[in-house]
Give the backbone structure.
Amino acid sequence: MKDQTELKRLVELARENLQQGKPSEALTLAEQAVQLNERFPPALFLLGVALRLTGSPQASIKTLTEFLALEPNVAQGRHEIGLAFNTCGQITNAIVELKKAVDLDPGLLGAWRMLGEVLLVQGDEVGAAQAHARARLVSGVDPALKQATELFTSGRIGIAEGVCREYLRIHPTDVNAIRLLADIGYKLGIMEEAVQLYKRCLELTPDYHMARHKYALALSKQDKFEAAMVEVNRLIEIDPNNIAYKTLHAAVTSSAGRFEEAHAVYEDVITRIPNAVSILTSYGHSLRYSGRGEKAAEMYRRAIKADPSHGDAYWSLANLKTVKFNATEVKDMTEQLHAIENDSADKYHLAFAVGKALEDDKDYSGAFEAYTLGNQIKRRYSGYDSSDNTLRVEDSVAVCDNKFMSAFNTGGNPDPSPIFVVGLPRSGSTLIEQILASHSQVEATG
């Protein structure tokens, strides 16, 4: 009885010290409690938390694993072990545990926020946006904004946009609503509007770091790399060791063609989190664009080893003309393809990779079958509507008649001199060439 009283006293003191921001004192008290009873769940939980906060995440994982063996359905325990995995760079494990936490307690705000952060590290922008949207839902927002957020997370983007715009008409300075509308624009590819909305968020709330992160991504999508790097550098100044900010730095500099700088950052990141498949794949893309195909293949293979169902890495590897899959690899890819039950980007990428491998082996029947499967899945997955596209073209033809176009018959230059377009990687030079060649008075000869 005396030991039980002392155990409860130590646990309560440890909890109070954690609440007061004294993790070292809490650690000592929690260790004493566990010595009295090593299977007392509250003591194990507090010890795990204190270990993480005092810089021992591996020991925290071990202790919290013992806690979860006794209490597997405690959401806060899943949240804490997710935080510890993230600190250790074990991003996949962190995502698994954080998802369990929010499944057990959908109102756990901190878990939703951290899930958004780690999904962003993995390169899952859509998942990160949805997690942050769910965080807004549980933080006590206006019912109208809550409805818009729910519509957005369920994929009903058009209706979400309408509700959000109506809400902003009444509440024009609500940064959460502005951010949501910016996210909608980003998802729809309307980057100019998204950029302006993210910028407005930051004017109202300069320390809204998630909005700044998306602002930098949107600027990069517009090829405004210098402006994007200004925002990236601001984030890194705030938190130099934030993996999401580092991967953003690498992605922006790679898109800008600053490959040496990008690759140095990627190397630093994969040293910290060696099995983050999306980062390994992104690094592979950057290496490929810089002409380092052999090193790119190495990164794609590392991604596949970390996650054998990661279709993008297989398809990217297949697209390297210097790579030919051996029989074992083709067998493994085929098995992975059939193991994925639901339509997804991973599945159609794997189907395309299998098709390419079989085509290289001159198994044209098998290749055609795999390509057909991949295209069928991508067709369903993409949401493309041919009738909608036809309607858009017909509307364009109806509007752009002779009368309409005659208003633009001035300008131009009749000079017959040749136009030379200098091709540069990822600069849009091919697009410029195609635009010029589409003119009725321009003949493409190169």
About this structure: The longest helix spans residues 364-382. The chain has four domains: 1-139, 142-238, 242-307, 323-379. The mean pLDDT is 88. The chain has 25 helices and no strands.
